[in-house]
Each structure stands twice: as structure tokens, then as C-alpha cells.
Amino acid sequence: MQRTVRLIPTVALCVLLSCTCDYTTGERIANQSQEYTAITEGIGCGATVPYQSIIRMERPYRILGHVAWTTSRGIFTATVGLNKLRLNWADNHHLIVECRCKKDDVLSKDPQWRDVTVEYQFSQ
């Protein structure tokens, strides 16, 4: 009995650790001044977890023309495929995110990052 009690958590741990996720990079679009980049990424972890799409913003900092470091932040997460997202820069400080999804599919969205305003458009 004691052996069975120890075996169950061990098997459960092995199953959990063997679960792998697939990460996919979609669009990567820089604004006109190349100061900011918006990136779509997808994460799929199997049949038990819904596929998630993420939009990240990046800003590289340059010293003498070379990238010294980059800051980034996730600004949008939804349970939709990457093919449902479209990014468009209206100008250097205004990103438009088009999602062919329902607002209920959205897990998080930020209206601004640094001096970039993000506008979200939903088609369903």
C-alpha cells in the first residue's frame, strides 16, 4: 500500500514533466522609425490546454549603432490562433491590433506601453 502511495505522485510528476509546449513566432513588424517592434507568438501545450497567442512589444537600446540591450513586454494574450491576429502601425506611436475573435477570447490587453498607444479591433 505504501509503495502505491509513493508511485502515484511519481508517475504524475513524470507525466507533467514530459509535457512539452510548441512555441511559434508569427509576424514581426517594426514601426517606421525602427524604434519599436511588435511580435506575435503562439504557444500550444497539447490537447488539455487551449492554444494561446501573445503579442509582445520590443524596444532595442543602441550604443554606437549596436544593440546593447532590449526591453520587451507582453501587451496582449488571447486563446486564438496566430492566423486570427494582424498588426499594423498607424504611425510611430500607434499600433493597431486586429483580432478576428470575440472579446471573450482575450485574456489580457494593455492599451499602452511606454509611449505607444495600442488600439484593439475585434471583428466578432
Q: How is this structure best described in words?
A:
This protein is mainly beta and 124 residues long. The chain has one domain (25-122). It has one helix and nine strands, in the order H-E-E-E-E-E-E-E-E-E. The chain has one helix at 2-18; strands at residues 22-30, 37-44, 52-63, 66-78, 85-91, 94-99, 106-109, 112-113, 116-122. It has a five-stranded antiparallel β-sheet, with no helix packed on it. Strands 5-6-9-8 form a four-stranded mixed β-sheet, with no helix packed on it. Strand 5 (85-91) and strand 6 (94-99) form a beta hairpin. It is globular and about 50 Å long.
Summarize the structure.
The chain is mainly beta and about 120 residues long.
User: What are the segments in which pLDDT stays under 50 over at least 5 consecutive residues?
Assistant: 3-7, 10-14
Radius of gyration over all CA atoms, rounded: 19 Å
Total number of helices: 1
From the helix content, strand content and strand pairing, which structural class follows? mainly beta
Rounded mean pLDDT score: 86
Which sequence of strands runs across the widest sheet? 1-2-3-4-7
Q: Work out the oligomeric state of the chains in this entry.
A: single chain
- Shape annotation: globular
The overall number of domains is 1
Give the ordered list of helices and strands: HEEEEEEEEE
Measured distance between first and last alpha carbons? 54 Å
Please count the beta strands (DSSP E, at least 2 residues each). 9
Main pleated-sheet profile = 5 strands, antiparallel
Q: Report the helical percentage.
A: 10-25%
